[in-house]
Amino acid sequence: MGIRSTTKRLATETLGVERRGGSFVAGRWVDAATATTFEARANVQPAPSEAIARLPEGSRKDGAIVIFLSDVSIDLQTVENPTVNADIVTRQFTGARFEVAMVDIWPRHRRYTATRFGQ
Questions:
Q1: CATH 2.40.10 describes domain 3-116
Q2: Is the pLDDT of residue 74 over 70?
Q3: Which of 54, 68, 79, 100 is the most buried (most CB within 10 A)?
Q4: Residue 49 has what pLDDT?
């Protein structure tokens, strides 16, 4: 059984994803007036210590999660890309919001690390 089928089988939570657009205007970033939202099935786990160690120091204290999406065609936007706003994911069960910080791209899946947002 491959990682894709395992991730789909273990995708136990539906995340709400908020994608906030924006663009550079006269050299300054301007957020779009509205955000796009969609849902994604995912396996969500506490971030392992090696993922937390790679986060900026100020983001480590609030907690982090890792997200394995069941649909590999969905690409979440991360803080690592300076030309877009990072996606904000909302956990279905707790309502906690997380900003997608980074992605690890592996041959058959992606692992996203997200940090608490707006506390």
A1: yes
A2: yes
A3: 100
A4: 87
